[in-house]
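Entry 14. Ran structure prediction on the chain below.
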Amino acid sequence: MKKEINIAIVGGTGNLGSALALRLLAPGVKVIIGSRDKEKAKTVVESLKKIQPKGNLEGKTNQEAVKEAGFVVIAVPYEGHATTVAQLKGQLAGKTVINAVVPLKKGKPFVPPAGSALLESQGILGDEAPVIGALHNISAVDLQSPDAPLGDVLVCGDNDGAKQKVMEIIHRIGARTFDAGPAANGYVIEGLTGVLIYLNRKYKSRHASVKVTGIGD
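Output, structure tokens:
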């Protein structure tokens, strides 16, 4: 994937979104931080530029951000997930949506009515755009540091072509990826985040992640 990549991060002012932006800037990916509040997005962009002065980074509203992007990362809290995706419906044709949302209540995972955040967003968008689940189990703390090792990323979805493109992007930020199957597997991958949160609390860490062994070693 040699051509320029433009990625919008919807909910990019949060911990995961801003950390992912820093990682993506290092290999030359153009990143557009999206937020409901444009001024908040611009403020976060200015703070990120102090950490990573090189790279193409902008701050816009969510709607403005997705217009310019070929890939759209959904990184909002689950409570606002369905509303956010519904607001973007009609603007995502021809794009690939990367859903990194985890359904949590007080740090504990649960299965939403649709079966997963991934299936919920695909149900809202229908055939407008393929939705790929990824980046649920990566530590935002590790993403913030360009040199920090990352855990493996499990990627799932029903569109194999879109899934491959997402895996290629994730390789750029220094993580191994594994095709973890269809969108129906999303609830398992999303739920692992709750386990990692518990492990971090139990063992006083901020770096718990997933590592696949026995494949590609």
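The chain has a mean pLDDT of 95. Will compare against last week's run tomorrow.
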